[in-house]
Amino acid sequence: YAKHSRTIAVQLYESGMDERRLRRQKLAIALQAAIEQDQLTLYYQPIFRLDSGDIESVEALLRWSSPEFGMVHPLEVIAVAEHYGLAHRLNEWVLQSACQQLHHWHQSGYYWLKINVNVSPSIFMDGELALTVQKVLQSSGLDASTLVLEITEDTSLWDTASSVETLQQLRELGIEIALDDFGTGYSSFSHLRQLPLNKLKIDKSFVADMTTDPRAYNLVKTIVSLAGSLDMKVTAEGIELPEQKDQLQQLGCELGQGYLLARPMPGDDMTEQLLHHTR
Ligand code: C2E
Ligand code: MG
Ligand code: MG
Ligand code: MG
Q1: Which portions of this protein are annotated as coiled-coil regions (predicted)?
Q2: What is the pLDDT of residues 184-194, one digit of tens each?
């Protein structure tokens, strides 16, 4: 009997695997079409200077509402793209769209605004990122200094000297590099020493706990001071409560984003928000 039930469990496990693989395959096919037919969109979440309340930048965040699958979480979209060889085209689409939108805002008079664009780790491996960025900057007519690329602490990223080279090429173009979700990944002090980074983003899990957990608070404090001593700007993500904002400000954290300040929104809503924003 035990043998029999184990067999069923294995079968269930395997059919579960099949279902997941099937969903991913179908997602990949739909995603490819969505990229070609321009069915993806970007939302924008402002990043504020905590002292003055000024908007410093907006982070572009991928949204895909598929007729077949509904809203697909951006991390699943990225995972599917990575697995089925669509990552390069997806990243290029995101970059192109984000830069076009920013150029539009610059032309409307918000010339001081920057844009943060997330790039997936595998893109650093194909060696073409700097070329792609250069191309996109040229075709959108954007000043390089207004583009910030956000990368996450993925182990594979740091393993090769070529990633450092890619980052250096990007810096030479004049764009900025931010290390996203800092504190949750695999970065070591030697990475921080070797990589040409301009910004650290404190992961929202630390911010979420900082007002209730002294250890989280002390970690945030340490990251802020670490960033300062390495001459990097620091941004806190996921600010949801006034107390979090107050504490971050007291610690000298320069920039912040989160639902308390503004949620991610469609481009038109962001334009509206800029209209009422004096700087
Ligand atoms: P991320 O880059 O760390 O982006 C911040 C995430 O936190 C976003 O989730 C944002 O909506 C969410 N967020 C902002 N404020 C708050 C807050 O106060 N509380 C909480 N709980 N969450 C907040 P989202 O848009 O679902 O994106 C998830 C992740 O997917 C991103 O994390 C990023 O790693 C990835 N991603 C999103 N768009 C892109 C893209 O265009 N390209 C790539 N490669 N990755 C992307
Ligand atoms: Mg990000
Ligand atoms: Mg983040
Ligand atoms: Mg994150």
Answers
A1: none
A2: 877 677 778 88
Ligand 1 contact via 153 beta carbon (within 6 Å): no
What number does the ligand 1 atom closest to the CA of 260 have?
Answer: 18
Contact (Cβ atoms closer than 8 angstroms) between residue 60 and residue 98: yes
Model pTM score: 0.93
User: What 3-state class would DSSP assign to 243?
Assistant: helix
CB-ligand 1 contact for 236 (6 Å cutoff) = no
Contacts of 198 (CB under 8 A, 6+ apart): 148, 176, 177, 178, 232, 233
The ipTM of this complex is 0.98
Tokens 């900082």, located at residue: 210
Alpha carbon nearest to ligand 1 atom 36, residue: 74
Structure tokens at 12: 């269930």
